[in-house]
Design a protein that fits this description.
By secondary structure, this protein is α+β, with helices and mostly antiparallel strands. The protein has two helices and three strands, in the order ββααβ. Helix 1 (about 40-55) packs antiparallel against helix 2.
Length: about 100
């Protein structure tokens, strides 16, 4: 069965990632860069997106998958620390079938 593939991702104010242009993704992606350039935060962003879309909400506690993903990442640690409050985190993404 063909699984949907993440085709592109863009984000703003997610940790230190403010990707002004869309990052196009393929089946295999290799991230290379200096320490502190955002590689780990990009992977964290992918995990956050996955957790939002695939985690089953805990209805008994009234917690949505989004709230659970925020809690897993550490609440306000999702925000870029250089952005003044109130801040917004923006994600743009697209899935397609191969």
């Amino acid at each position: 069965m063909n699984q949907p593939l993440l085709r592109f991702l863009s984000t703003k104010n997610y940790k230190n990632l403010s990707l002004d242009k869309v990052i196009e993704l393929q089946k295999l992606n290799i991230f290379i860069g200096a320490n502190g350039s955002g590689k780990s935060n990009f992977i964290s962003c992918l995990k956050f997106l996955k957790d939002n879309l695939t985690t089953t909400p805990d209805e008994s506690r009234g917690v949505s998958s989004f709230e659970d993903a925020i809690a897993q990442i550490g609440g306000n640690r999702i925000l870029d620390v250089s952005v003044e409050s109130p801040a917004r985190v923006r994600f743009a993404y697209c899935f397609s079938k191969m």
